[in-house]
Amino acid sequence: MTIKSIRRLSTKPVVDKLFNVVQSSSCNERQTQLNHLLDTYAQQGKAISHNLINDVLQRWAVEQPKREALWMCESEGDESQKLTFDDIHKQSCRLANTFTNREYNLTPGQTVLVILPNNAKERVLLLLACLQAGLIYCPYDPKYLTDIGISERVRKLSVNCVITDEDHLEIVQQSTGTPLRPLKKGLIMKPSTAKLSPVSWNHLIQQVNNAESKYTKFVNMNHNTPVIRLLSNNNNNGIEYCHGTLNLHLILTALWLNSNKTPRLIWMNDQNEIMTIASWLFGSSIFYKEIENLRTMIHTFENYPIDTFCTTLTKYQMLENEQEQEQEQEQEQEQENKTNLQQLFSSETINSKLKTLWHSFTNLDIRDDYIGFRNNPKLNKFPNHIQHTIPRIS
User: Fold this and answer.
1) Which domain of life is it from (predicted)?
2) 130, 142, 160: which is closest to 228 by C-alpha?
């Protein structure tokens, strides 16, 4: 039996249980299947494949290839792009093949610093590609981009490759002109000379488009191998996720988001990649759009079939702005506000006043019990040494 077949056998029971939950026809059946999922995961523990999310995506791509997985909407206007599970799987595999080809030549254990906007589909595709290739993914939001921030990440996170787009190329070049450590080929590469030079973003995308849509270079990574690195916003210390911790975090987040009803289209705003892709474990479609103001938020609810909203405290607080609220109330007098919203989530604690305000606006309660959910006695069946090593992303 090959290593690859062993990995598939160790992953398949959990993937099967996830799909049983999705296909449940009643609340009682759903709860039963959720309990079976918890039991299976607790029993297998470290045996779970590090590539669980990719295996789930591949299953969706095979069984329901046309099912929508990602809906990207531009910040301005209503232009949007939809990707199916088949699209997501193939494009992430092509990226993984590009990173490991002769030109880029990245090898397992090396670190990729990704400097792209939160609403860029390439961010989540790059994460999936890194998981496939055994690379370590380091996200950096351009909204907080500084020379010092880039150089510190290159140094503290042991970065081997920097991927960014044309908009942020100049500051990245300036920050890595005299690199603190050698960088492998990426959008920023180190040629024979000492000075770094860019590889065109269009060139990278062309390489991806020409790459094979199946990734065949299986990497045998163990439970404790790092998969994500980042710097905390509080003390600038490094935070690292290993494969086992990532899987557990994905499972717990997915259970939290799906404990009442599986979202069909969930608007993930200002959430980290791990929380976002957890939605795919149960087949939800992810919606991406930046929120400039309250009017943008309400307009989006009215014009897209979003049934679940998950965002940060800051975005929920927009509803407290009395001036915008009054303007919106005037608009609502002319046109009744109709949305598909059925669920509201926040990974941060929401005060009672704000909850009341949102309830009056949507007739929905905000679920902000993520931390409490992780400490639920039902989850005690998870191994303690795994359960208590979940780092928090700031």
Assistant:
1) Eukaryota
2) 130
